[in-house]
Specification:
Layout: H1 8-32, H2 36-39, E1 44-49, E2 55-58, H3 63-79, E3 91-94, E4 106-115, E5 118-128, E6 157-161, E7 164-165, H4 167-175, H5 180-208, H6 210-233, E8 238-246, E9 257-266, E10 269-273, H7 289-302, E11 318-321, H8 339-354, E12 371-378, E13 384-391, H9 419-425, E14 428-435, E15 451-457, E16 461-467, E17 488-493, E18 496-499, E19 503-510, E20 514-518, H10 533-542, H11 547-554
Parallel strand pairs: 10-11
Antiparallel strand pairs: 1-2, 1-5, 3-4, 3-6, 4-5, 6-7, 8-9, 9-10, 12-13, 12-16, 14-15, 15-20, 16-19, 17-18, 17-20
Length: 558
């Protein structure tokens, strides 16, 4: 091992240079992608890894992706493609959750970076693709009972070998997706991003030397580990437990799914025991350990009381106990399309546990699920279009601040797709979009508001799939704060409204049908009686709460 040690200034320069390279990769995806889910919703991530596959820098994209990409790359290296089988200009692709991935729409690519014949880094990108086949458009089946029903599974394999494209793999992917031009275009965007990342690393190697880059990676990981240990050491030792529930798994509709965590703080390390969670379920809300560990790592990093460079070093002080066969550590071939529902709930559970240790840093529960709406429209000329939207809700109130309304939080960091982009691309009209008053939990600080969104079908016919939750169990409040409102889903046909379940599979729609979604609000924080009267009246004037809500929850009349 090299005896070279970088001083703090040079290390900080290189840390920012690595991050800037990841951002350049990020911008490349954004500017070259085809689908609205990547280009507008921004459901993708980019990162830089050291020569052994450990994450050292990342763009500011999706936490659920970024905290799991090292898990995926290390799984590929350990089980499928050893380090000595990676060559210059190779590109390895996978989307298989049981080979280190998340769920099938998330396709991950990695490329090694060589300098003068020596491997000095990896670059990686992950995109949520519009469709990868399966029994529902958008590959988000609500009632799959095994992963084989969820779409095309790509084991870790080389999409490029020494810079030569494997056309057979591209053909296989194109043959198994509903919109091949869009999906293959987004794959090309990922390839371009990897090229930009590799070029950026090589420029740094030429400027600072390959040896300095390798040493910088090691020191950055060690530095983040030390910072995270200091954060944990400052927490009071103890065991903190919390639990919450998913409504159901989409198949057995009368059985809530329990997520339980016991967080043990001991010195400068921390153990998260998920053994009390439900066994894996028949429906597609299962999560693999790679997905669940991503939520755990995010929760611990989010409660830090100081800035920490986000990289894999942060995870080293955290031990995870999650026996195989739990809903948080599912086994093949359990379906996992909506694993994010379990991960959102797990994150809220971890926040609930950590609030007992560091209550001044932790917000109440946020909306806690990705509200996934998938449409396939079929026009008179038999043109098929796929639209996937992921909506959000209200954030939990912090002890010192109200929760944000209709804002992406937690395990995802999505944008909203502009109405104009949707209506110009698909025969769908958005007939309503806005915040929902009285959905944020009351408290000294108020929970954020959920939102509503309405889609009208203008095509001859369509099918609709929903993967949602939080229709039964409210996002909790803290310190006497009240819970946020639950969500709702409604079909409006010929003026008649019919309530739908949170998980809907391939429901047939007719021209003129309207789907209305109402998302949950965030929990409140602190006793509502302590909220300043002026703040309540401001909320009434702003339309955040109604006069009736103010009287009921705060005892305030306009």
């Amino acid at each position: 091992m090299s005896t070279l040690v970088l001083d703090a200034i040079e290390l900080e320069i290189l840390r920012n240079a690595f991050t800037a390279t990841a951002v350049e990769m990020d911008v490349t995806v954004w500017r070259t992608s085809r689908s609205t889910i990547v280009r507008e919703l921004l459901d993708y991530s980019t990162a830089i890894f050291d020569a052994e596959g450990h994450n050292v820098a990342q763009s500011a994209r999706i936490p659920q992706h970024l905290n799991s990409m090292s898990f995926c790359l290390r799984t590929i290296i350990d089980r499928f493609i050893p380090l000595d089988q990676w060559h210059d200009h190779d590109v390895v692709i996978t989307n298989d959750p049981y080979c280190g991935g998340q769920h099938l729409p998330d396709i991950t690519m990695f490329r090694p970076v060589f300098h003068n014949g020596r491997r000095i880094a990896f670059v990686g990108t992950l995109c949520h693709h519009l469709d990868v086949g399966g029994m529902s458009a958008g590959s988000y089946s609500a009632n799959a009972t095994e992963i084989f029903q969820e779409g095309l599974r790509i084991p870790p394999l080389k999409l490029y070998k020494g810079g030569v494209r494997c056309d057979e793999v591209w053909a296989m992917i194109g043959q198994n997706v509903r919109q091949p031009v869009t999906v293959l275009g987004d794959l090309q965007s990922q390839i371009a991003s990897l090229g930009v990342g590799a070029a950026g690393i090589l420029k740094l190697a030429e400027k600072y030397s390959a040896e300095r880059l390798v040493v910088a990676c090691r020191q950055l990981l060690d530095g983040s580990e030390a910072a995270m240990r200091a954060v944990i050491e400052a927490m009071p030792d103890g065991v903190y437990e919390f639990e919450d529930f998913l409504d159901d798994d989409g198949v057995e509709l009368d059985r809530p799914v329990r997520i339980h965590a016991s967080v043990s703080v001991h010195g400068d390390s921390l153990t998260v025991d998920l053994s009390g969670s439900s066994p894996e379920v028949r429906g597609p809300v299962n999560a693999t350990l790679g997905s669940a560990s991503s939520a755990i790592n995010f929760a611990i990093m989010a409660c830090a009381d100081r800035p920490i460079a986000p990289n894999e070093g942060c995870y080293r002080p955290i031990e995870i106990i999650a026996p195989e066969g739990l809903v948080v550590n599912a086994r093949h071939p359990a379906p996992v399309a909506h694993r994010i529902a379990t991960c959102h709930t797990l994150l809220n559970v971890l926040f609930g546990a950590l609030a007992q240790a560091v209550p001044d840093r932790i917000p109440a529960a946020y909306y806690g699920v990705s509200y996934v709406c998938s449409f396939q429209t079929i026009e008179s000329d038999d043109t098929h279009k796929v639209l996937v939207e992921i909506e959000v809700g209200g954030c939990g109130a912090h002890p010192e601040q109200d929760g944000a309304s209709g804002f992406s939080f937690g395990m995802h960091n999505n944008n909203n797709i502009p109405i104009e982009m949707i209506e110009s691309d698909a025969p769908v009209t958005l007939t309503g979009y806005g915040l929902l008053p009285d959905t944020g939990g009351a408290g000294k600080t108020r929970g954020g508001l959920g939102l509503y969104r309405e889609w009208r079908i203008d095509a001859r016919r369509a099918s609709f799939t929903a993967q949602m939750d939080r229709f039964r169990f409210q996002p909790y409040g803290l310190a006497g704060g009240q819970p946020g409102a639950v969500g709702r889903l409604t079909l409006i046909r010929n003026g008649k409204a019919t309530a739908l379940h949170s998980k809907v599979g391939n429901m047939a729609l007719e021209k003129g049908d309207i789907i209305r979604l109402e998302t949950s609000g965030g929990g409140g924080n602190g006793d509502p009686a302590l909220r300043p009267r002026a703040a309540v009246r401001d909320d009434i004037e702003s339309g955040y709460i109604t006069a009736q809500g103010a009287a009921l929850h705060y005892g305030v009349t306009p």
